[in-house]
Design goal:
The strands form three sheets. Strands 1-2-7-4 form a four-stranded mixed sheet, covered by helices on one side. A three-stranded antiparallel sheet has the order 3-9-8. Strands 5-6 form a two-stranded antiparallel sheet. Helices cover 52% and strands 8% of the residues. The protein is globular, with a radius of gyration of 24 Å. A hairpin with a 2-residue loop joins strand 5 and strand 6. The protein is an alpha+beta fold and 506 residues long. The chain is built from 19 helices and nine strands. The chain starts with a helix and ends with a helix. Helix 7 runs antiparallel to helix 8, helix 10 packs across helix 12 and helix 13 runs parallel beside helix 18. The chain has one domain: Cytochrome P450 (Cytochrome p450, Orthogonal Bundle).
């Protein structure tokens, strides 16, 4: 036992010494005009600053050290940008240099097919192929229009579920779970023609398997693992255990996604359908003519990104939006008046209608400003030395854009902490003031889909129901833990069906 302890201690000392040497060797880089940096700890650097609300921590640092701050997360240099003008510089003159993604998250390695999905892939030919597939075959206007009926049907199912107990009087509803289930059903019905939430799922066991996998995926995706920044730690204690759990989840996720592809391939072969009825079906049709560009792994990667990036983000945006409306009944009243004046109580709004409702669009934009689901955007990685905000930023630096701080900058926004949809009355803001979906080459490709889901759902909820808070107290707007900035307290509300429900929902 003593021998094991001795050699373990010796190994740790050796690894820490190497890391310590590397840390200071890197800090003594030839660059002299580096961004300001707060005091750091040996080996750990600024890892002690990591917190559940990292965007708030970074904002506090920017107040003291300026809009461009340099940090060390273990052996990795991180530069945080917290001003609109500097972000604009990143996404214009430095857009190509910052087009890479850092390879440090274990979830990207194991769940993301060794960093080969469109979100995590390094900039190059492979990424350009993935982006082309996404732009033309998944998120294009024509492709989204094909599946508009699915989104409309799922929103109707949500409305019907809400109306079951609220046709006569106000009833309390758990909006978080309902919105989350709806967004998952939208994506999975588009992708594979299957619903995995609700009373009418076709395969209960498969549905449970899917829900368990996604629950774990979001749990691990929101965990900050120290071994991501001090690689030596992955061989010891919780680091090794965490990687083992992620690897096990990866195997189950891959098997599940492959099962969906195999099922669609069999259906396509046996039915002989000429038109693609699902996203997988469509991509498999393209695989026949260009197998090198549409491999099973690439298809699985696109499905994974749609699930991880296109579900939680939309449902949380809807939850934040409804929370804001409940706390600002005058805004809710004005939004309903806009809908009633445009469409009356005779028909439900449809996706094309949402872009004719400027006040509704203002509510969504203001929600994304105050509560972006990616407050730090997706990290970038420098492929060469560059200059940001007048400072030298070396190659192989992680660059993070604090969109949350920019969205609340008092030099850019009047009364920035207040919820004021009317600030977007003129049709929007400059792109580098409001950037919930990122900017430049690596901007979120699913923005169009998200706008449709959020706009149609929020407009339908306002059109079809009266809404009130559960109590006289304001809805708690505290932020919870997680990369997508969820509400700390799940939203519950009181709703009562309006007359339109009896006309349009049978």
């Amino acid at each position: 036992m003593d021998g094991v302890l001795f050699y373990t201690s010796l190994s740790l000392i050796f690894i820490l010494s190497i890391t310590f040497k590397y840390f200071f060797r890197t800090k003594q880089h030839r660059h002299t005009n580096l961004p300001p940096s707060p005091p750091s700890l040996p080996v750990l650097g600024h890892l002690h600053l990591l917190s559940p609300s990292l965007h708030r921590t970074f904002h506090q640092l920017s107040q003291k050290y300026g809009p461009v701050v340099s940090l060390w997360f273990g052996s990795r240099r991180v530069v945080v940008v917290s001003s609109s003008s500097t972000a604009q510089e990143c996404f214009t003159q430095n857009d190509l240099v910052l087009a890479n993604r850092p390879r440090f998250m274990l979830t990207g390695k194991h769940l993301g097919y060794n960093y080969t999905t469109v979100v995590e892939s390094p900039y190059g030919d492979h990424w350009r192929n993935l982006r082309r597939i996404g732009t033309t075959e998944i998120y294009s206007t024509s492709r989204l229009n094909i599946f508009s009926g699915i989104r409309k049907d799922e929103v109707k199912k949500l409305l019907f579920k809400l109306s079951r107990s609220s046709r006569e009087d106000f009833a309390k509803v758990d909006l978080r779970s309902m919105l989350s289930e709806m967004t998952f059903n939208i994506i999975m019905t588009m992708v594979a023609g299957k619903r995995f939430y609700g009373d009418d799922v076709s395969d209960k066991d498969e549905s449970k398997q899917f829900r368990d996998i996604m629950r774990e995926a979001f749990t691990y995706g929101g965990v900050t693992n120290p071994s991501d920044f001090l690689p030596a730690l992955k061989w010891f204690g919780s680091g090794a255990g965490f990687e083992k759990k992620v690897m096990d989840l990866s195997k189950r996720m891959n098997a599940f996604l492959q099962g969906l592809i195999d099922e669609q391939q069999l259906s396509k072969t046996t039915s002989g359908q000429s038109e693609a009825s699902t996203m997988i079906h469509h991509l498999l049709s393209l695989q026949e003519s260009e197998p090198e560009y549409y491999t099973d792994q690439i298809i699985k990667g696109h499905i994974l990104v749609m699930l991880l990036a296109g579900t939680d983000s939309s449902s949380l945006t809807l939850e934040w939006a409804m929370s804001n409306l409940l706390n600002h009944p005058e805004v809710l009243k004005r939004a309903r008046a806009e809908l009633d004046a445009k469409f009356g109580q005779e028909r439900l709004i449809d996706e094309p209608d949402i872009f004719e409702l400027p006040y509704l669009q203002g509510i969504i934009s203001e929600t994304l400003r105050l509560y972006p689901t990616a407050p730090l955007l997706v990290p970038h990685y420098t492929s060469d030395d560059c200059t940001i905000g007048g400072f030298d930023v070396p190659c192989d630096t992680i660059v993070m854009i604090n969109a949350w701080a920019i969205h609340r900058d008092p030099t850019l926004w009047d009364d920035p902490e207040s919820f004021k949809p009317e600030r977007f009355a003129n049709g929007g803001e400059e792109p580098y003031k409001l950037m919930p979906f990122g900017q430049g080459r690596r901007a979120c490709p699913g923005m169009g889909l998200a706008q449709r889901v959020v706009g149609l759902t929020l407009g339908s909820l306002i059109q079809c129901f009266e809404w009130e808070k559960v109590s006289e107290m304001k809805v708690d707007m505290s932020e919870g833990k997680g990369l997508t900035m969820p509400k700390a307290v799940p939203l519950e509300a009181m709703c009562k069906a309006r007359p339109i429900v009896n006309k349009v929902l049978s």
